[in-house]
Amino acid sequence: MCSDGTSEGLHPRGHGSFTKILRQYVREEKLLTLEEAVHKMTKQAADNLNLKKVGEIKQGYFADLVLFDSERISDLATSDQPHALSTGISRVMVSGKEVYWDGKATHEYPGRTIRRAK
């Protein structure tokens, strides 16, 4: 798995990295199960970055959740349209706050940027 983009957001991966994995490697090519992919994107990524209280759904952890339809999720971002939103995602919560709900941004910004260690 890789980053979902840079702070500049000028690359398709900024809006489609993880949805591409779910579409291509899980649904189409069946190289990963849905559970394996989600684990790599969440718990394994948090462990690799030594992040605490993220990556799992547990009491006392940050509630970062994405509700998606595994049969519809797809990446649409391209080099020409790097900001094209993926399809198949209905809701996103960051730190327990609704940031994307039924196809619309809520203009809540509870997250924080993870900086590279020096």
End-to-end span in angstroms? Answer: 22 Å
Q: How much β-strand is present in the residues?
A: 5-15%
Assembly of the depicted chains = single chain
Neighbour order of strands in the largest sheet: 1-2-3-4
> Can you tell me the number of structural domains?
1
Shape: globular
Output mean pLDDT.
Answer: 89
Explain the overall architecture.
- By secondary structure, the chain is of the alpha+beta class.
- It has one domain.
- Helices cover 25% and strands 14% of the residues.
- It contains 3 helices and 4 strands, in the order H-H-H-E-E-E-E.
- The protein has helices at 13-28, 34-41, 43-48; strands spanning 65-68, 89-94, 97-101, 104-105.
- A 4-stranded antiparallel beta sheet has the order 1-2-3-4, with no helix packed on it.
- It is globular, with a radius of gyration of 14 Å.
Describe the structure concisely:
It is built from three helices and four strands.
Q: Would you spell out the secondary-structure blueprint of this structure?
A:
Elements (H helix, E strand, L loop, with lengths): L12 H16 L5 H8 L1 H6 L16 E4 L20 E6 L2 E5 L2 E2 L13
Antiparallel strand pairs: 1-2, 2-3, 3-4
Keywords:
single chain, about 120 residues, four-stranded antiparallel beta sheet, about 25% helix, globular
